[in-house]
Fold each of these.
Amino acid sequence: MFSPESFVSETVKKIKNDVTGRAVIAVSGGIDSTVAAKIASDALGSEVLAIYVDTGLMRLGEEKDVREILARLGINYRISQEESLFLERLKGKTDPESKRKIIGKTFIDVFEREATEFGASYLVQGTIAPDWIESGGGLRDTIKSHHNVGGLPEKVNLKIVEPLRDLYKDEVREIAEHYGIPKMRQPFPGPGLAVRIIGDVTKEKVDLLKRATSILESEISELKEVPWQYFVVLLGDRSTGVHGDRRVYGSTVAIRCVNSTDGMTANFTPIPLETLGKISRDITNGIPEISRVVYDVTDKPPATIEWE
Ligand code: XMP
C-alpha cells in the first residue's frame, strides 16, 4: 500500500542528496506542481523558488489563492505579474494554435528570466506517470498543442528533478492530503482564458469572461453534483438584444459543462434547466455587455472540451 509519509521522507532525502545547487519550479495552482513544490521545499528550503507566472489569463482570485496556499505551506515563491506582456504578444492573433504557441513561448521567456535571476541550476517538475507514459499514440497532442509546465525541459537549460514521476493522480492526492493541501479546483488549461475567447484576445474581453466565469462558478457550486469541468466561452459574434426599449448588439457566451475522467472523452452534463435559466439571468443582469447565453450540448468526440 502506498504510504504518503514514507514516500515524502524518502523523496526528501533523495533530493537533499542529489541536488547540489539552487532549484526553481513553475507552479500553476494545480495539485501536481503544488505537491512537487512542497516536497522540494521540504528538502531544499529557501534554495528552491516556486515561480507563478501570472499571465492575466487566469480566473478571478486565482493569483490570490495560489499566493495563500504557497505562503501557508511555507514555500519560497515569487509571483511574476506579466499580464501586459501576454496581452501585447497576443494582440490581433486569432488562430487558436498560434495563441497557444505565443502563450507557451512567453511563459518560458518569463520563467527563464526568473530562473536565471535566482541562479538556478535545477528545474523541479510536477510530472506524474500519465504525463510521460505513451497513451495510445498521443491523440490529445495531435489535436491541440497543449501548453503546460511539462513542456519546459526541452527549452530550459537546467537539470531536471521529477519527484512525482512514478506516481498516479490518486497517490498525489494522498500526499496533498498528508500536507493538508486543500482539494484543488477543476482542471484548467495552461493557456487559460485565452482559449475561451474565440478570436483575438483583449483586456476588455478577458475581464468580461472573468466576471462571467465567476458567476457560473458560484451557481455551479450550489449543485449537489458538480461537473468535472465547467466554464464560459466568449464567442466572437455579436447578437441582438434589448435593454429597456433599446436594441443592443451584445456579446454571446456559451456555457460548457462536461463530465469526464481524464479529459480524453467527455459527455456534456445535463444541468437542470432551472439552474441554466438562473445562470443566464445572473450573467446578463450582472454583465450588460452580454446579451445572450447558450448551452453547449456536444460530447467529446466529436467536439473537444475547450472551444479552441
Ligand atoms: P480538449 O479541449 O483537448 O481538452 O478536449 C481536454 C482537457 O485538456 C484541457 N486543455 C488544456 N490543458 N493546455 C492545458 O494544459 C492546453 O492547451 C489545453 N487545451 C485543453 C481542457 O481544459 C480539458 O480539461
Amino acid sequence: MYKILVIEPLHPEALQLIDARNDVSYQLVTDVSEENILAHIEDADALTIRVSTLPVKALQKGKKLKVVSRHGVGYDNIPLDECNRLGIPLALVGSVNSIAVSEQTIFLMMAAAKLGAIFNQGVKIGNFGIRSKYRPMELNEKKLLIVGFGKIGREVAKRAQALGMDILVYDPYQKPDENDLKVLPSLEEGLEIADVITLHLPLTPETKYLIGRKELAILKDKAILVNTSRGGIIDENALHETLCTGKLHGVGLDVFEEEPVHPDNPILSHDRVIVSPHSSALTDDTLKAMGMMTVQNALNAIDGCLDPALVVNPDVL
Ligand code: NAD
C-alpha cells in the first residue's frame, strides 16, 4: 500500500481521488510542526503541502518520497536545493489558479484606483462628503507595467486590455509574442513611466526586495502598486516610507513579508492601502482544481508518470 502524507487539508473531492484507489491511502497532518511531520514522513511515498514550511529534515527522513506536490505555484516554502540534492521532484499545479489570481489583481487595482477602502469606510460612518475630498483614478489609457509575464501575468494583461489600459511587460526570461504589448529591456524603464505596477514573479534570492527604496523613488507621482505574488518582493519598510510622503495614489496587497500580517504593521495604517489575506486563489473553483491537481501529481509520481511540465526540477526525473 502506498501512502500520501497530506500536510494541511485538501478539498474533499481531491481526497476522493485517493479513496478511489485501493493501492493508495493518505494520512492527513494538520499539526505542521517539524516534530509532527517527521513523525509521519518515513513511510510516505509522496507528500502534498500547502503553505507551511517543509523542513529540510522531512526530505532527508522521507527516504521513499517520489514527489513533493505543492498545492499552488509558488514554492518559497520548499527547500528546493535539498529536493535537487536528493533527486525528489517538486510538482506544482500549473495554470489552475491563474484566473483567480488575475481576477484578484484586477480587483485590487480597481479598488486602489477608485479608493474603494476610503469611500466604503467614509460612507458607512456617515461621511458622504468624503466624495469631495479624494479623487478616484481612471484606468482607461493608463500604462500598466506587468513584472513577471508567466501564467498569471498573461491573464492580467488580457483583463487589463479590456479596461483600455496600455500594457508594458518586464520579464527577463520570457519573450512575449503578443504584438500589442510593449516589452521593456529593464525594470527601471517601466517603473519610470507606468501608472500602475503589478507583480507576478516568484520570490527567490534574486527577486527579494526587487521593489525597494530606489525603485519606489523612481515611480511616477500618483502611481498604483499591486502585489499578489509574494511578500518580500516589495521592501515593506521602504513602501511605508514612500506612502508617508503621499506620493502613491494607492497600493493593493494580497501578500506580506510576514504572514499572517501583524495588525500593527505600519503598512496597514495607510488608508490608500487595500489588502486581502493571501486569498487570491481561494475561490471554490480554484481550491477544488488545485486540490485535484495536487493529488493527481502525487498519484502520477507513484505511478511513474509525473508530467515534467509541472515539475520545477525536471532534471531529477
Ligand atoms: P509563472 O512561473 O508562470 O510566471 C512567473 C514569471 O516570473 C515567469 O515568466 C518568470 O520568467 C518571471 N520572472 C522570474 N524572475 C523574474 C524577475 N527577476 N523579473 C521579472 N520577471 C521574472 O508563475 P505564475 O503562475 O504566473 O505565478 C507567479 C507568482 O504568483 C508565483 O511565483 C507565486 O509566488 C504567486 N502566486 C500567488 C498566489 C496568491 O494566492 N496570492 C497564487 C498563485 C501564485
Amino acid sequence: MPSQTLASRVTRMRESPSVAAAQRVRELKAQGRAILDLTVGEPDFDTPEHIKRAAVAAMNDGLTKYTPVNGIPALREAISKRLHLKTGLDYDSSRITIGGGAKQVIFLALMATVEAGVEVIVPSPYWVSYPDMVAAHDGTPVVVDCPESEQFLLTPERLEAAITPATRWVILNTPSNPTGAIYTAHQLARLAEVLDRHPQVHVLSDEIYDEITYFDAPVPNLTAVAPHLRDRVFLTNGVSKSYAMTGWRLGYGVGNPELVGAINKLQSQSSSCPSSISQAAAAEALSGDQSFVTESVASYRRRRDVTFELLDEIEGLKPVLPQGAFYLFVGCADLIGARTPDGTVLSSDQDVVLYLLDHASVATIQGSAYGADGYFRVSFATSEDTLRAAAAAISTAVSALTR
Ligand code: PLP
C-alpha cells in the first residue's frame, strides 16, 4: 500500500499518553492479565437516570436533526445561568460556544488564535493535551515549571518572566489534572495584576473539574475575581467529569464574541454542531437535580482519603493530597536508582510505572507525561476495593526493591 504523506502538524503531535496508557491496559487485559487500572480519567459512575431520560425524551420529541452551531436554546440558557452563578456576569449567546467535549472546544480555540510565532504559556504539571494542541497549530508551548514547593501552581513571578511580546495565551487549569491543585482567589488576583500589564495575553481557563472539589466552598474563578478581564478569559468546561458523561461528548466555552464567533465558524465547517441528543442531556445535567454531584464528590473524597493514607505509608512514595479532581500525584523520586528483583535499575518515573505494571499489575501514568519527572498519577475514580488492592500490590512491589 503506498504510504500517505502526513502533514507535519500530525507528525509533530504525540498521541495522548493517557489514551495510550488506557490502550496498553486493554491489551494486557486481552492477554488475560488482571490489571488494577488506575489510569482512567473518567468517573466510574453511570450517567444519572434523569439525564438519560432527558436524552430519550429528546429523541422521542424529534430532536434528531442538526442544531444551531452554538447549540439549542435550552443548553445555552443552562450554561449562561451556571456562568452567572459562578462569575456574577451575564453571558448572552454571542459569548457561548459548544463542542464535542471541552477538549474539542480548547482545540478550536487554539486553532482560532495560534499560528507560527505565537507562544502559549503552559504551567507544568499540565494536562497532557495542551502542548500538543499548541504544536498542532504551529505555535510554541512555553512550559513553565511549577514545583511542588509552590503547590504546582503558577506564581505571578513565573508568569511575568515567561511573557514575551509573542505570548497570546496562558493556560490555567483549576482544579488541576494531574495534581488536583486549586488557585485561591488571592492567587488569581495576583496573576490578574500581571495580566493587567500585558494586554496581549489572554487566559484559557480550563475548569472541567470545578464541581469536584474537597473544599466546602466553590472553586475560585478568575473572571469573578477580576471581572475587568472578562473579554480576555476564555473559560472552558463541560459535563464529562461532573455528571459522569464522558461518552456523550459535550463541552462548552465562554469568552469574548470575536473569539466565540471564530470558534463557531470553525465548528460550522468541521462538525456543524455536537450531537443534538447530548445537548438535551447536558441541558438537563446543568439545570436539573444536582444531587449526583454532591453524592459522587462525597464518594471521591472517601476514596481520595483512603488512597492517600495507604500510599503515604509506603516508604519511598510521597503522595500529594489533592484539593479537587480525582487524581493523586505521587512523588516517586526516591525510588529512582533502586534495583528491581531481576536486577534492573529504575532510572526514571517511566521505569517506576513499568515496574508497577509488571510486578504489581497496577497501571498508573508517569509524571513526565504531564511535564513533571519523578511522579506518577493515580486516578481514584474507581472502587475502594480496587484502590485498596492496588495500594497493597504497590507496597509489596516497592518493598521488593533494593538500593
Ligand atoms: N481538560 C482537562 C484538564 C481534562 O482532564 C480533560 C479530560 O480528561 C478535558 C479537559 C476534556 O474533557 P472533555 O471530556 O469535556 O473533552
Amino acid sequence: MNLILLGAPGAGKGTQGALLAERLGIPKIATGDMLREALRAGTPLGTEAKRYMDAGELVPDQVILGMVRERLAEPDAAGGAIFDGFPRNVEQAKSLDDMLGGMGRGIDAVVYLDVDDETIVRRMSGRRTDPETGVVYHVEHNPPPAEVAGRVVQRDDDREETVRHRLEVYRRSTAPLVEHYRTVGVPVHTVDGDRAIEEVQREVLALLDGRPT
Ligand code: AP5
C-alpha cells in the first residue's frame, strides 16, 4: 500500500504515521524527519534546508524530490510506504506519481487529518521530541515516560509565530492537494483529527480495511 497522510502542521501525521507503519509493516517516509536528520548529521543538504525550516517555508522541490527518490529505492520500501509531510504541493504530487509509476505503483489512498488552527497552535507548544529515538510526545496528551522526560527537546520551528506562518504556507501550497487527489481519482478520506490519538488511529485503520497492503 502507498498511503499519503495529509494535514496541517501538527495535525498528527507523524503520530498516526508511526502507529500505521508498525501496524501495516511498511516504512513511514517523513521528509521533515529526513531533513532534521540531515541537519543533525551536519550535511550540506541539512544546512541548506535549515533556513527554510526555521522560517516555516517549504524547502525547494529539487532537494526534497532527490531525497524521496533515494529513500523509495531502499529495499524496505518495495512493498509500499506511508508518506508523511510529502507531497507538499501539486508539483511534488506529480513527481511522486511519476516515481511510483516508474515502479509500477500508484497512490492507493489519502488520509486527510482535519484539525482547526487554534488546536494546532496549542498542540505545537506542547510537542516534545526524544533526540535519541525521534519519538514524538506531547506534555499533556502523550507525556514522555520518566526515563525519557529529562532529555526531550522542543523543535525550533514550534514557536507560535512560526507555526502560524507554517499554517499559511500549508493553506496556500498543500491544502489544494485534497482537491488534486480527488480530481485524479485517488480516494481521499477525511478524518476528524481533534480526538484522542487512539480514536483517530481506529478510524484510519477502519477506513483502510480491505485495501491491499
Ligand atoms: P514537517 O516535519 O513535515 O512538519 P509539519 O508538516 O509542519 O508537521 P509536523 O511534524 O509539525 O506535525 P504532524 O502533523 O506530524 O503532527 P505530530 O504527529 O508531530 O516539516 C517541517 C519543515 O520541513 C517544513 O516547515 C518545511 O520547511 C520542511 N519540509 C518538510 N517536508 C517538506 C516537503 N515535502 N517539501 C518542502 N519542505 C518540506 O503531532 C503534533 C503534536 O500533537 C505532538 O506533540 C503529538 O504528540 C500531539 N498529537 C498528535 N495527535 C494528537 C491528538 N489526536 N490529540 C492530542 N495531541 C496529539
